[in-house]
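ok new one. same drill as before - structure tokens go in, u give me an amino acid for every spot. 223 of them this time. try not to just spam alanines like last time pls lmao
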């Protein structure tokens, strides 16, 4: 019997409906898959739809991940200003590129690109938060001043994406303990953590320090 492919999963998910994952019962469906050679290595891109936010999310898959255990994964939340424009206020683009380079050199791995701009508060609110940071607030204080929590992200979409890809367990590339807890609480088996620390710059040093001291990110290795 031939091993299952991503295109097989697309076909299998055509009429997919389920009770969903998490408190909002998010049901994810694989919509399409295609080859995606990149400057970071050979990937396949998988497009997902879901019944919650009307946004398309994507997985960038390297190697054979279907039915595999201990699959290295990175959950990357969309950051237009960093990922596309190269903003120096955050380390998002550095994290994205470093993750893709690392995954492209491994036997297998997945980068989940999640449409959760600004830690889940959206692009316009993120720019409002930037404005408050320009006035002296840190990232946590700015989000709270706008009426949000430090981090509004939910990982139910990510968990269902991994279920849809038939991944049995993951090695999570992260410094964020909330990502570890979030996936485990949704039933994903996390076998280990892979640290993912970027060198701070003069522009994002305070941002990274706030992540460490107020949000509990495991960044001690950066000094």
């Amino acid at each position: 019997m031939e091993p299952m492919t991503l295109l097989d999963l697309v076909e299998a998910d055509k009429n997919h409906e389920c009770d969903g994952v998490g408190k909002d019962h998010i049901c994810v469906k694989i919509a399409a898959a295609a080859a995606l050679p990149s400057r970071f290595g050979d990937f396949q891109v998988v497009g997902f739809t879901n019944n919650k936010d009307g946004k398309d999310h994507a997985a960038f898959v390297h190697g054979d991940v279907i039915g595999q255990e201990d699959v290295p994964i990175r959950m990357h939340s969309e950051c237009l200003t960093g990922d596309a424009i190269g903003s120096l206020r955050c380390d998002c683009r550095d994290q994205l590129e470093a993750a893709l380079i690392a995954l492209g050199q491994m036997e297998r791995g997945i980068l989940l690109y999640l449409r959760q701009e600004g830690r889940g508060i959206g692009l316009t609110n993120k720019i409002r938060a930037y404005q408050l940071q320009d006035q002296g607030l840190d990232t946590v204080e700015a989000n709270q001043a706008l009426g949000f929590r430090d981090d509004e992200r939910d990982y139910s979409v990510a968990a269902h994406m991994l279920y849809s890809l038939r991944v049995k367990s993951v090695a999570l590339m992260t410094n964020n303990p909330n990502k570890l807890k979030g996936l485990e609480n949704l039933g994903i088996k996390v076998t280990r953590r892979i640290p993912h620390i970027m060198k701070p710059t003069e522009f994002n040093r305070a941002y990274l320090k706030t992540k460490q001291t107020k949000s509990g990110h495991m960044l001690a290795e950066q000094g």
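The domain at 6-116+153-214 is CATH 3.40.50.10990 (Rossmann fold). and btw DSSP finds nine helices and seven strands in the chain.
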